[in-house]
Fold this sequence. Notes:
The structure is a single chain. By secondary structure, the protein is mainly β. The protein has one helix spanning about 15; strands spanning about 5, 10, 20-25, 30-35, 40, 55-60, 70-75, 85, 95-100, 110-115, 120, 125-130, 140-145, 155-165. The chain has one domain (about 5-165): Ureidoglycolate hydrolase (Jelly Rolls), CATH 2.60.120.480. The chain is about 0% helix and about 40% strand. The longest helix has 4 residues, at about 15.
Amino acid sequence: MSERVLRPVRLTRAAFLPFxxxxxxxxxxxxxxxxxxxxxxxxxxxxxxGESGRVCVSIARCERPTRLPHRIERVERHxxxxxxxxxxxxKPFVVVxxxxxxxxxxxxxxxxxxxxxQGVSYYPGTWHMPLIAFESGQEFLVIDRAGxxxxxxxFELEEPVVLVEEGSAxx
Length: 171
């Protein structure tokens, strides 16, 4: 059985829409705040926590950087709420996502690379690769659901997927 190879493409709002929302302060004018000392880009994504959940804001710091090619053997989803990941320093990161379904389909997985300032918010139930970073110490703001009910399903892929660099000649 051969491995599927994924090459990330540039993250755009339109391309990512089936899986979630892109979080970024784009070219829109924003709104002044704090006596116009700042411009606020508000309501950049919806936060879904379900009926019995609450919003949880965390910081995740990379202890073991990932190198490409990277073999993906499992994916996860959060069925009860959304999950947002926002880099705290201008460093690109890669996400691999698949549509919400009972189980993921390897053939439907897609890879996206951020521009370093974009974050993502996965819709509830969207299958995705666990968070990776390319530099030790890289930090992410994580906004997701907390509560009494478990909200992370792991799925071992029957067929591993290999994530390669953008534009790599490997097929």
